[in-house]
Design goal:
With 97 residues, the chain is an all-alpha fold. It is built from 2 helices and no strands. The protein is rod-shaped. It starts with a helix and ends with a helix.
Length: 97
């Protein structure tokens, strides 16, 4: 009976040692995951800042595009101005006659 108790005690000690080793291994994994989580949260914050900056830049570019005429508008304006200058020259020529 004493022998059985010693064997049972030895098994309990072995199992508790295994549990302690697993616990320490899980603590290490938990520490690594916490570190990785912190790094990913910093990365998320950086991405959010970049996203805000790029969104603001897009808005500025949209405003600049509205303010700046496109090539078709510039060509139409030049044609209109050329026509007006020719008409003014004709009027001046008629006044000189």
């Amino acid at each position: 009976m004493a022998n059985e108790l010693q064997q049972t005690l030895a098994r309990i000690i072995n199992k508790s040692n295994i549990l302690v080793e697993k616990y320490h291994a899980l603590e290490d994994v938990n520490s690594q995951l916490a570190s990785e989580k912190e790094q990913l949260e910093k990365e998320i914050e950086q991405i959010k800042r970049d996203n805000e900056r790029l969104t603001q830049e897009i808005e500025y570019l949209k405003m600049a595009r509205v303010v700046t005429p496109n090539l078709d508008d510039v060509e139409k304006a030049r044609t209109t101005i050329s026509t007006l200058v020719r008409d003014i020259d004709k009027c001046i020529a008629q006044l000189n006659e």
